[in-house]
Design goal:
434 residues; Helix Hairpins; 8-stranded mixed β-sheet; 18 strands
Length: 434
């Protein structure tokens, strides 16, 4: 969430900054303009009455020492009335501030000045490319055909159990999912210094508000109830481990010596994929349930941009170790997620589609999430607490990594070569059709 006071004092400046995202982003401030005017009016009236109250209080103190008891009593009644009026205006001001905060929950973050301008993914900027696309002397197959040939992917039985956009992984497929997860977690904990966390997969609405999924993306969430219709007991299936990991320190004040905080976690992720009907309906690309290893960093504000480079390199290391060709793109202003001030997408090459597909988004959110979740730190032992900065990224999406391994390392005989770095977890160097 943006700083309510900054928005109130610099409304048009903030509107212009959000317009770099899109006209729609700037329009999210429309409901705040009237509240800003009310806030300004109430502050002015409150301060004027407070000045009158202070003058009346001083006058009453002077009259208390004199013989004119009637004048003293009149001034005391005036002071009592002024105090009640001030309390009433302060209550109205509190209500306006709360209303502003509610409106700001729907306002996206301001893009950093280094983010390229653009309105869609076509305007994203390629920052770097790693490796070369694999060259085949045969027509490369899609991962769903490879999975069928190896008898490791089953979408029909998954549909029988759960409907569309689910998958059953058989035998070596299940092992490959588990191997990739363990490989990623071990790399991030042993080599990159992250602390592994195993968080709950069900979270309260407050946690989703803290990271920005609520209220904007409620349609994309799976919601559960202990008792039907009991909102007080409602819990949501996590759409990403970013939610529980970031909110581990909600309503806390950390010490400067604790920063940077670096967490990694494996969780299944659950998304209804609202609005994506007919898009990526085949295979593992867009599932209602998928596994992901997440990276979250909590850092001092002056380290935010540098830490985005650190986190992105950590995610890239997984792809490099697996020998997977990919590129890194800086998202343009119109393609940024709502909470992000700057994002790099890691896009892996899929030979069957002859295009790059996102496998990780690494984002720096500034203090946007920290303000919502009330995550602060103390720069000095007795210093005033300040909001810290949050970062998150996939390190990586496991299902999409499996897709890339199957497609980039497929062989003419129908087998798939297991990357050398993954073999200790797989126990084999190749997947072979039965």
């Amino acid at each position: 969430m943006l700083d309510p006071r900054h928005v109130a004092d610099h409304l048009e400046e903030v509107r212009a900054a959000l317009a770099r995202r899109s006209p729609g982003a700037a329009a999210t401030l429309d409901g705040i303009a009237g509240l800003v005017a009310q806030r300004r009016d109430l502050i002015g009236r409150t301060e004027a009455l407070q000045a009158q109250r202070n003058a009346a209080n001083a006058e009453m103190s002077r009259l208390a020492k004199g013989p004119d008891k009637a004048a003293f009593q009149a001034r005391r009644e005036e002071l009592r009335a002024l105090t009640e009026q001030v309390k009433k205006l302060e209550a109205e001001l509190d209500q306006v501030v709360v209303a502003m905060q509610d409106e700001l929950l729907a306002v996206p973050n301001i893009p950093h000045e280094s983010v390229p301008l653009g309105q869609s993914e076509e305007q994203n900027t390629v920052v770097r490319v790693w490796g070369e696309p694999p060259v085949f002397d045969f027509e490369p197959c899609a991962h769903w055909d490879i999975g069928d040939r190896l008898q490791i992917l089953d979408f029909e039985r998954a549909a029988k159990l759960s409907g569309a956009r689910f998958a059953v992984l058989w035998r070596a497929g299940a092992r490959l999912e588990r191997a990739l997860t363990a490989f990623m977690l071990d790399m991030h904990t042993r080599e990159h210094g992250y602390s592994e966390v195993y968080p709950p997969f069900l979270v309260r609405a407050e946690a989703l508000r803290g990271t920005g999924q609520l209220p904007k993306f409620e349609a994309d969430l799976f919601k559960t109830y202990r008792q039907e219709g009991d909102e007080s007991g409602a819990l949501y299936l996590v759409p990403t481990a970013e939610v529980p990991l970031t909110n581990l320190h909600a309503d806390e004040i950390l010490g400067a010596e604790q920063l940077p905080v670096a967490y990694t976690a494996f969780t299944p992720c659950f998304r209804s994929e609202a609005g994506s009907h007919g898009k990526d309906v085949r295979g593992l690309i867009r599932q209602h349930q998928f596994d992901k290893v997440e990276l979250v960093r909590l850092v001092a504000p002056d380290r935010g941009l540098d830490e985005l480079e650190v986190l992105t390199r950590h995610a890239e290391a997984v792809l490099q170790r697996l020998g997977l060709h990919y590129r890194v793109s800086a998202l343009c202003t119109g393609d940024l997620g709502a909470s992000s001030a700057k994002t790099y997408d890691l896009e892996v090459w899929l030979p069957s589609q002859r295009l790059y597909r996102e496998i990780s988004s690494c984002s720096w959110c500034g203090d946007y999430q920290a303000r919502r979740a009330k995550i602060r730190y103390r720069p000095e032992p007795k210093g005033k607490p300040q909001l810290l900065h949050t970062l998150n990224g996939s390190g990586l999406a496991v299902g999409r990594t499996m897709i890339a391994v199957l497609e980039q390392h497929q062989q003419a005989d129908g087998s798939v070569v297991i990357p050398e770095a993954l073999r200790p977890w797989m126990g084999t160097d190749r997947l072979v059709p039965p």
